[in-house]
Amino acid sequence: MPPNIAAIYTTVQHSQNPAATSARTVLNRIGGSLGTALLVVVLQHALARGEAPAADAYAHTFWWALAIGACALIPAALYPWH
């Protein structure tokens, strides 16, 4: 079980598991959609400038994705690891 799911289930009461599961699923889907939309905007902006080849625009977008992923390590470090 991934650490974020385990942290959710260890902090809620057994009777709250269905609500916690639903909330996690909704937040996961919204976060994925927003992250994808953000990267599409970054890519579109880089392509619209037209200053560099498309490969450079994709590389620029990749670095944004890597930076966003690195930012996710901060809250992951705060998870209770018991």
Structure, described:
The protein is an all-alpha fold and 82 residues long. It has one domain. Helix content is 79%, strand content 0%. The chain contains four helices and no strands. It has helices spanning 3-11, 17-49, 54-71, 73-77. The longest helix has 33 residues, at 17-49. The mean pLDDT is 87.
Work out the radius of gyration: 18 Å
How many independent structural domains? Answer: 1
Q: How would you sum up the global shape?
A: elongated
Instruction: Estimate the mean pLDDT confidence.
Output: 87
Report low-confidence residues grouped into runs of 5 or more. Answer: none
Keywords:
mainly alpha, 79% helix, 82 residues, single chain, 4 helices
Describe the secondary-structure layout.
Layout: H1 3-11, H2 17-49, H3 54-71, H4 73-77
Helix pairs in contact: 2-3
